[in-house]
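Please fill in the sequence for the structure shown.

STRUCTURE ENCODING:
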């Protein structure tokens, strides 16, 4: 499996996180994803896009994906073979779930639940028919998310439920109508195939005009007492695109808050809004590797806090 999607990563250094607020009482419109000519169906709270991944001359995997309020929903339809999207999921279960994936058995359902290394809670179910292998995968930064639960429990093959109904289906449906997680964005696009073992990189640019907070140095300056200068970035390393994010065609924005110390080092870096599959960690690594000239306040070096956005896009 080979893929060569072009990846562009923009870096924005902002005075504050400029993203829209979400109405917590907004009604979620669920729909049924039931592609013609296929055996599966599933309820989804968001529009689903499809990526076609060419495995070999005879096999093409379909990956349906959607996102709502930092919840991510995926359905993969594979043809049996030695490699496919199911093998990407197997490696994800091993590395992120620290579990040994079992065989995907015809007519049976395999289920996995875990908090991944990306600090997202994953739910995965898999099954197969004589002709195809199906993977349903949903994840959220919130444990026991009702939308995730509704998604996986609604999955069917040829009209047959893959999981028994949850204990309180009516309550689940009511809870799943209201988003309760902070807003996040993601964009899907198509490419030729998914390569789980490759990594990507991107280029970034930014401005450094205003700080969200400052703390002046204690020492006094003999010259230029009233001089003020903004922080000036010297280098902005590029964050890497992780192999799982690429395989899942995941796009979106990581927002972090970084402290630029008066001694010229990057101090604390915290995630304000993250992405799964290791992209938050890659954004943190890139931020910590920045070099800069400290801000000047009243002639002295000063510590400033900046909000930084890393927008990961596959197109």
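FILLED IN BY: designer on duty
SEQUENCE:
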């Amino acid at each position: 499996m080979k893929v060569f999607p072009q990846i562009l990563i923009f870096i924005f250094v902002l005075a504050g996180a400029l993203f829209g607020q979400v109405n917590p009482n907004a009604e979620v419109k669920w729909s049924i994803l039931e592609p013609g000519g296929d055996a599966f169906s599933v309820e989804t709270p968001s529009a689903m896009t499809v990526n076609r991944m060419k495995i070999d001359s005879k096999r093409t995997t379909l990956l349906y994906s959607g996102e709502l309020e930092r919840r991510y929903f995926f359905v993969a339809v594979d043809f049996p073979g030695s490699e496919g999207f199911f093998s990407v999921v197997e490696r994800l279960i091993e590395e992120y779930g620290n579990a040994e994936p079992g065989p995907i058995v015809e007519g049976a359902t395999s289920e996995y639940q875990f908090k991944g290394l990306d600090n997202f809670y994953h739910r995965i179910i898999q099954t197969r028919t004589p002709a195809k292998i199906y993977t349903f995968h949903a994840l959220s930064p919130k444990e026991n998310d009702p939308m995730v639960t509704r998604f996986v429990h609604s999955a069917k093959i040829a009209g047959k439920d893959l999981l028994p109904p949850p204990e309180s289906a009516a309550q689940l449906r009511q809870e799943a109508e209201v988003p309760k997680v902070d807003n996040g964005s993601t964009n899907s696009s198509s490419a030729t195939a998914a390569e789980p073992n490759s990594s990507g990189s991107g280029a970034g640019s930014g401005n450094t005009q205003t700080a969200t907070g400052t703390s002046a140095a204690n020492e006094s300056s003999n010259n230029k007492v009233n001089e003020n200068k903004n922080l000036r970035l010297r280098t902005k390393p590029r964050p890497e695109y992780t192999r799982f994010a690429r395989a899942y065609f995941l796009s979106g924005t990581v927002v972090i808050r970084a402290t630029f110390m008066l001694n010229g080092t990057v101090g604390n870096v915290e995630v304000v809004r993250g992405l799964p599959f290791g992209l938050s960690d890659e954004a943190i690594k890139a931020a910590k590797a920045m070099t800069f000239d400290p801000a000047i306040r009243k002639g002295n070096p000063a510590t400033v806090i900046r909000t930084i956005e890393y927008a990961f896009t596959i197109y």
